[in-house]
Amino acid sequence: MSRNLFLIFIGAVVLSVTAFYNRFPLLIGESGSYIDSGLGQLISRTITPVYGYFIKHSSWGYSLWLVVFCQSFLLSLLLYYCFRYLSNSEKKDMYFLIFIFAIAFLTAAPITVSTIGVDAFSCISMLAIGLLLFADRISLRDLFIISTIAIIGIGTNVVNFIACAILIIIFSVEYFIRHFLLTSAPVKITGQRLGLTIALVGGAWLLVSCWQYSMGHTFYFPGIKNMTALKGGGKVVVNKFSFLISDYPKSIKRTATFTSLSTWFNWELREACLSKQYFDGLQFSTLSYVQVGACIVSQLLFILLSFATVIKKRYRLLMYVDAAFLILLATDYWVNGGRCKLAWGGMWLLLLPVFIAIDASESRSTDRSNIVL
Amino acid sequence: MTLVDLKRTLVHLFAILLSTLIYCSLTVYNGFPFTFNNDTAVYIERGFSGEARPDRPIAYGLFIAATSLKYSLWLVVIFQAFIVSWITYLLFRYSNSKRQANGGYQFLFWYLGFTMFVCLFTGVSCEVGMLMPDIFTAVTILCMALIVFFRMSKLHLIFVSLILILSIIVHNSHFFICIVLCCFFLAGYIFSRIRVVYKEAGIKLKTICFVVALSVFSNLVTAGIHKHYGAGFKSSFGGSVFFMGNLIEMGVMDSYLSENCGKKKLKLCQYRDSIPNDFLWSHRSPLGKIGGWDKSNESEFSSIEKDLLASPSYLKNIIYKSSIYTIKQFFNFDMVHVQKPTKFVNYTIRTYYLDDYDTHMNSLQASQGIELGFINFSQHLVAGICCLFYCLVFFYFKADQNLLCLTLFILMALIVNAWFCSTFSGVFSRYQTRVVWLLPIPLFAILNSFGLKLFVKRNRRAVSFTS
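^ inputs. structure came back:
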C-alpha cells in the first residue's frame, strides 16, 4: 500500500508541474472571490461556498501551494482508481504512471489543476461519477473515498452539478430501457450504483442549498439563477468554443484577487509577485496544438484498436468519457456564455479510454525476471 | 603502441573532436559566443584587472583570460566544448568497460548519438557556448560520477581530478553541491542494505573520501587565488547577503522585521516598508544605502539568519519554503537568459577583444535576437520522458546496480543543485538549465551497456539488458 501511495504522490507532484513552472499557483479573476468566500466566510449568489471551504481547509490558512497539491492529489488518486478498477492487467500501475506523465506534458491537465479555481473539480467529478457507475468490485473504503470526492466535486460549481445530473439522467434512461424493456440484453450498470450516484448528486445539491440557507440566503444552488442560458443565451454556438488554451494575463495586480491574496496569504504575496504570470503573463500556444493532436490521435487509436475483443468491452468507457466531455462543454457554455474554459481544460479526459484499453489488452503475463537492465 | 591501438586512438580522438564541434553548433549558428546580462562583462573585466570582489569568485574571469589567450573569446567556448566532450566520452567509455577493455568502437555510436540528441533537443549547446561558468556545474557532477562509479586509468583519473578542481573553483555553488552529494553518499554507509548496494555497484569509501578531499582542496585553491589578488584568504564571501535576499523573497523577513524592529537596532528597519523583491540588484534596494556588500552588513545579516534558523516558527517556514522552492527550481529550466547583450558587455568586448567586437555586434543574439522556443519545448518533453523512464526502471525493471546508482546520482545531483541554488540565491531558470541536459545520460548509458544485443540475430533468448 505504501508503494501505491508513493505512486499517487508522484502523480500529484507531476500534475502540479505548471504551478512549479509558473513559480506560484495560477490565479484567475475569480480566485479572489473563492479565497474570500472560504477564509472570509462571504456568501455569494454566483459561487458555491464549497470551493472556498476547500481552499480554507486544504491551505490550512497557511499556503496556496497546499491547495494546488490537494487538487492534484485528488485527481491523481481518482486516476489511480480508474486504472485499478477499470483494468485487470498486472501492469496497471505502470500504465497509470505513463498516463500521468502523458497528460502532464502533452495536455492542459496540469494547468487546470494548478489554478486556484473550480475547473479542476469538473474533471474530478466526472471521473468520480464514472468510477461509481462502471468500476467493478470497489472496496468499501474506496467507495467511501470516491463518493466523498464526488460530493465535493459536484458541490464546487453549478456546471458540475448540472453536467452530472444530465449524465445521471441519460444513464438512468439507459438502465430503464435495458432492464425493463430489453430484458434479454445484459445490464451494464447496477441499480445500486445508479441509485448511489443519484443520491450523491441530490445530496450535493441539498448540501449546498442548505449551506446557503443557513448563511442567510435563499434555498438554491448558487449560480443557477445567473446562467447565461436563462438570460436568453440557450443556443450553443460551435464557433464560440475555443480549444486553444487561453492566456493567463499578468493583470492580476490591482484586482480583487490580489487584494484577497494580500489579506489572507500576505506572506506569499512576494512569491506571487515573482511568478511568471505576474511578470509576463502565461501563454501555452504550442501546448494547445499538441493537446488537440494528442486527443485526436487517442480517439483514432481507440477506433483502430477496436478489432481486439478486449477493446470492445471498453467501448462504454469511451462513450462515457466522450459524453461527459461534451456535456461539460455544453453546460459550461450555457452557464457561463462565452467564457468556456472547459473546452481546453477538460480535453485531456479523452486520452483516458485508450490508455486503459491498451493496459487491459495486456493479457499475457510477462515474466519479470527476463526484463533486466 | 601497435598500429591497431594507434588507429583506435585516432578514431576516438576524431569522435571527441566531432563531438566538440557539435557542442559548438549553436554558437556557430549565433555567430559568436553567447553572453549573459552584465555577468559576462564582469567576469571578463575581473579576469584582466585581477579584482576579486565578494559577489563571485575571480577564477572564471582568469579562465577566460587564459583560454582566450587574450586574443579571441571563441577559444574559450571551444575549450569548454572540448572539456564537456571529453568528460562525456570518458563516461560512455567506462560505462561500457566490462564489454570492451581499452575502448573499442561500439560505445562511440551511443556517445555521438547522445551528443547529437542533447544538442538538438536541450539547451546544452547554448550553455557550452555561453561565456559563463554555468556549464561547469554539469562538468562537476560528471567528474564526480566518473571518479565514484568507474575505475579509470591513473592518467584519466589525474586529468578528471584536475578538471573537477577547475569546475569547483569557477563558481561558489559547485563546492557546496559537491560536498552535499558526498554527504549523501557517506550517509548511505550507515545502512547495511545500502552498503550492500554500494558493494554491488562498485562504489568505494576511499573514492568518496577522495572526492571530498578534492573539493576541500579546490576551496583552498580558491581562497589562495583570492589572497593573491588582495581579497583575503577566503573562498567565498557575500553568502549571507545572497541568503538575505532570498529570505526577503520568501516573505520571512517581513514578519521578522515587524516583530523585532522595536526590540533590536537593525539597519533594515528604517526601510522595512519599501524593501523590493530584487534586494541584491535593484537600484531601489536599501542594500546600497546601508553599505552594500561590506563586512558590517555581512555580520548583521549573518546574525539575523542565525536568529531565524534558531527559532522554531521561522525555521518551519524556511524549511517549507525551501522545499517548495526546490521543486520549483527543479521544474524551471527555460532558456530565457539569452537576451540582447547589455551596453556593459559591448563595452567590455570592445575594450579587451577589439578584433571580436564586430563579430559580436553582428551575432544573432546582438542583432535580431535568437528564438529558442522549440528547444524550450523539446527540453521539457525530454525531461518528462527521462523522468518517466527512470520511474519505470526503479519500480518495474531489475537493473544493473552500477547503472541504477548512476541514475539515482544524476537525479540527486539535479535535486541538490535545485535545492542549493533556490534556497540560497533564488529560483532562476538558468540554474537548472545548466544541468537538466544530464537527464538523458543514464538512458544512453543503459542503451550503451547492453549494446546492440537486441539486433544480434544469433541471440534468440528473451529480451535481456544485462551488461
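Chain A touches chain B through 35 residues (CB under 8 Å). The two ends of chain A are 26 Å apart (CA to CA).
thumbs up if we can close this ticket
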